[in-house]
Design a protein that fits this description.
Oligomer: single chain
Structural class: alpha/beta
Low-confidence stretches: 3-26
Number of helices: 12
Distance between the termini: 57 Å
Number of strands: 9
CATH topology of the largest domain: Rossmann fold
CATH architecture of the largest domain: 3-Layer(aba) Sandwich
Amino acid sequence: MNPTKLTRLVATASLLLALTFTARAQNAPAAITTDTRRDKDFPAAMEAPDIVSHNTRLNAVFYLASGAGPHPVALLLHGFPGNEQNMDLAYAIRRSGWNVLVPHYRGSWGSDGKFSFSNAIEDTQSAIAFLRDPANAKTYRTDPTKIAIVGHSMGGFLGLYATAHDQAILGMAAISAWNLGPSAARPDSPARAKSFHDAAPRLAGSTPEGMLNEAKQNAAKWDYVGWAGDLKSRPVFVIESDDGLTPDNHALFEALQKAGDTRATEIHMETDHGYADHRIALQTAVLNWLETLKQ
């Protein structure tokens, strides 16, 4: 090939690549690509408060946004057992002006007590109560009337439960939410057995058999599709991936629509349960959704 033509082709390809990158960057919120300006009086910070849930200490991490506030707060709930903590989401949400509380359920990740699904439901409610305490709201520059929940996997289930039972929650982003009850009621499978077996050593006081039995015993009432009527007054963001949970996720979205939730939204990403190769896409989706709650 003529050297001149080759040079032009390379230059054209480079320009197209640059334009593609620029377009993608423009689609991403600034909080993903740009650090916030430091506020010398109220800088962004990380705290580690203890949350008391039913006389038991929960380990938690609180990411505080820059500025005096009071800031809205996102309660970020991890899954089962929580190997994916979604800390990139926490940082991006903080840069967008929200405080972010990440609690760890009883028996997990440094929290006292024994893990159970029932305890995790209670612990989520205790975290919300912590945020609404006037003294904590003042200390952490948080607006206790503006709480949204972002939950992944089991955290999605817990967040949907909390939102359905607490009409003051602004909205809920359910990322590949695990529908715990119906999932437990289905026939045994190697994948489910492995999931419970792998999680148990990381969750104090639990056994695979004990956790599965608890889920089966509560299968009927731990079905988030049945909560659509209690969720319909708030925005619910259903995010799905290629992880086998899409039928349950989509059933929730359809139930919300049928119940009259005009602000329910749904997207699907071609990635795994941990969104391993779609982290920026996930951040973008969550931040854009959170922005709608400010309106």
